[in-house]
Amino acid sequence: MSRIRVLDEHIANQIAAGEVIERPASVMKELVENSVDAGATRIDITVKEGGLELIRVQDNGSGIAAEDCETAFQRHATSKISSGRDLFHIRSLGFRGEALPSIAAVAKVRCVTSAGGDGLGRLLVMEGGRVREYADIAADQGTDMTVTDLFYNTPARLKYMKTVQTELGHISDYIYRMALAHPGIAFSLRHNDNLMLQTNGDGDMRQTAAAIYGVSIAKALVPVEGESPDYRVTGYTAKPEVTRANRYGMTTIINGRYVRHFGLNQAVMRAYHTLLPINRFPVFMLRIEMDPSLVDVNVHPAKLEVRFSKETELLAWIEQEVRRALGAMSHIPKAVKRE
Ligand code: ADP
Ligand code: MG
């Protein structure tokens, strides 16, 4: 008798969830990325008890068509790529078709979505990876996802969760970076009914930075703007007088995706040269655009890591652009102060 078998879909999803869904912030990340990919201009996020009790993401994006509702929760089901070639030209944040089935495998999900402007939508409730309820419902265009009882069926993972404050810290950190990456989207974040962030979505990154870091940091930001044959950078970096004791103010965004890249952060820090006090970190938010073929986002399921095909060149260029921005600042202090 054969001893090797293909695992059933639910087990496969639980295994994938182990990689994709590490903590409440990972659920948040996947849901918000889907809202961004759906072209939302407003994303409202509600969290209870650090996301351990409830995570809700409401958007006014494209919505999911009635015929796609259940498929969206299947493994490897995506509307974002269709061929192997597409993998080298990714412009969306998602593409793996793993998030929704992974979340549904380790939590309870209630999805209300409407793709038309006709006020008609669908309600889909998933539990333990299975459809519990499916019904027509009145709904505005967009998607409203509520995730509760995270890790209810994976006690080992649940035990590993940290305090509400720690989990909330991971969530807010991620939402702040997403808001900086997409200043054209109005974000709101509520925790246990306290409003933690509200951005107006008017496209102004400095306004968004003010909402996140406060006005004094926003005032210390100098614009970084540059273009090379391969890259374009826009954003801000703070004057060296305004530094932080941690790295939470360092944000690099590649083609709309917040990424953690040690080399990029180091390159920006090198641009500050001796201006940066020891053990202090700068505040910056840089959006770098490049042809998707120059960056590999398919490195890890969480997609926070990327690889650049011309890394050395990119890092040298970023260092130069940031240095130029900081240098320009010191020559025209009055112009900067007025902003
Ligand atoms: P991926 O984002 O990699 O495609 P997901 O599992 O996150 O995979 O989502 C599956 C599909 O469900 C998406 O490709 C998209 O078509 C649809 N979807 C999920 N969330 C939303 C949303 N908020 N608005 C519109 N469509 C969505
Ligand atoms: Mg997704």
Gross morphology: globular
Please outline the major beta sheet.
8 strands, mixed
Total number of helical segments?
10
| Mean pLDDT, all residues | 92
Summing up helix and strand content along with how strands pair, one would put the structural category as alpha+beta
**Helicity, in percent?**
25-40%
Radius of gyration: 21 Å
Distance between the termini: 75 Å
Distinct ligand kinds? adenosine-5'-diphosphate, magnesium ion
- Extract low-pLDDT stretches: 331-339
H and E string: HHEEHEEEEHHEEHHEEEEHEEEHH
Beta-strand percentage range: 25-35%
Query: How many strands appear in the DSSP assignment?
Result: 15
Strand order of the largest sheet: 5-4-3-6-2-1-7-8
Question: Would you give an account of this structure?
Answer:
By secondary structure, the chain is α+β, with helices and mostly antiparallel strands. 32% of the residues lie in helices and 26% in strands. The chain is built from 10 helices and 15 strands. It has helices spanning 9-20, 24-37, 99-106, 155-160, 164-181, 205-213, 215-219, 262-272, 311-331, 333-338, and strands at residues 42-48, 54-59, 108-114, 120-127, 130-138, 142-148, 186-191, 194-198, 221-227, 231-238, 250-254, 257-259, 284-290, 295-296, 307-308. It has an 8-stranded mixed beta sheet, with helices on one face. A 5-stranded mixed beta sheet has the order 9-10-13-11-12, sandwiched between helices. Strands 14-15 form a two-stranded antiparallel sheet. The longest helix is centred in the last third of the chain and has 21 residues, at 311-331. The model is unreliable at 331-339 (pLDDT under 50). Bound molecules: adenosine-5'-diphosphate and magnesium ion.
